[in-house]
Amino acid sequence: MIRSQIRTLAMAAAVATAGLGAIACGASGQPAGTTAPATMPASSQVGAQSSYSYYRSMMGRHFGGSMMGGGSRGWMISPAGYRWMTGVNGVPGWMRGGRFPAYMIGPGMMGTSASADPGKLMGRLWANAPGPRVTPAQAARAGNQVPPSAHINQAARTITFTTGSVHLAAVASPAGGPDETFRIAGMVNPKITVPAGAQVSIQVINADPDTAHGLVITGGPRRSSWMPMMTSRPAFTGSALWFLGNPTTAGMHTGTLTFTAAAPGTYHYLCPVPGHAQKGMTGLFTVSNAS
Ligand SMILES: [Cu+2]
């Protein structure tokens, strides 16, 4: 991320904090947005221990040794702060209206644009996180791969499954664009239909060079808010992968969410990073009555 981007993000975030100099703490000392956790699948917690180790060292590296002290910095580097940042066992606090503390955003950032993207900060912080990765060539193949059991309508941008086992790949901000979209089976944000009861796995790859992205299936409104996880929850147990960091020379981060499409209905998939669904990272996900 270039310095001007950091400044833009930081300024807008400072506006969002409405003058608060640090994390908005409640009586418990926790920042806002720590309540009402949603269930996370076991697969999303793979590597959680090593990820926490990464988190501690990364935060110290970015924000200094004082991370280990008391106050909000000490809380932020605690297991509770880690959960607030990552959403292990719940929606990340910063996706639920929580605010990044000022020291993470940077000094002198008041009064800038409203186009701040917290995904820029998180993508940078998690760029070197542990976890599986793919090469850019693998990501390109995955984004264009049509699952053998799927029925595709390119013109209508639909992908329909009638099988009880559904495997998809979704590439966030794919090379060649469009930016801030998902490429699935060679299409931009296609409408996905699966039968009720289907076992669904979706491999998510973050191909965006400078922004974190994730994917959540929710029952929230069609036109998403800036912060959709304020009003939505994962529709099914396991239907969330909160975010993946920026690619590095080691490859592009990838993760797979798995869930059972238990109840017929109309849902949406979206990127839960604030602002991204509004920019276009969303599409329909329909669970049809099994015939
Ligand atoms: Cu995103």
Structure notes:
By secondary structure, the protein is an alpha+beta fold. The protein has two domains: 3-125, no CATH class; 133-288, Sandwich (Immunoglobulin-like). 24% of the residues lie in helices and 24% in strands. The chain is built from eight helices and 13 strands. It has helices at residues 3-16, 48-63, 71-76, 79-86, 102-105, 118-125, 136-144, 276-279, and strands spanning 133-134, 150-153, 158-161, 165-172, 182-184, 187-188, 191-195, 199-206, 213-218, 240-244, 252-260, 265-270, 282-288. The strands form two sheets. It has a seven-stranded mixed sheet. Strands 1-11-8-4-5-6 form a six-stranded mixed sheet, with helices on one face. The longest helix is centred in the first third of the chain and has 16 residues, at 48-63. It starts with a helix and ends with a strand. Mean pLDDT is 82; it is low at 1-46 and 108-115. It binds copper (II) ion.
Set out the fold topology.
Blueprint: H1 3-16, H2 48-63, H3 71-76, H4 79-86, H5 102-105, H6 118-125, E1 133-134, H7 136-144, E2 150-153, E3 158-161, E4 165-172, E5 182-184, E6 187-188, E7 191-195, E8 199-206, E9 213-218, E10 240-244, E11 252-260, E12 265-270, H8 276-279, E13 282-288
Parallel strand pairs: 3-7, 4-8, 7-13
Antiparallel strand pairs: 1-11, 2-3, 4-5, 5-6, 8-11, 9-10, 9-12, 12-13
Copper (II) ion binds at residues 119, 172, 213, 271, 273, 276, 281.
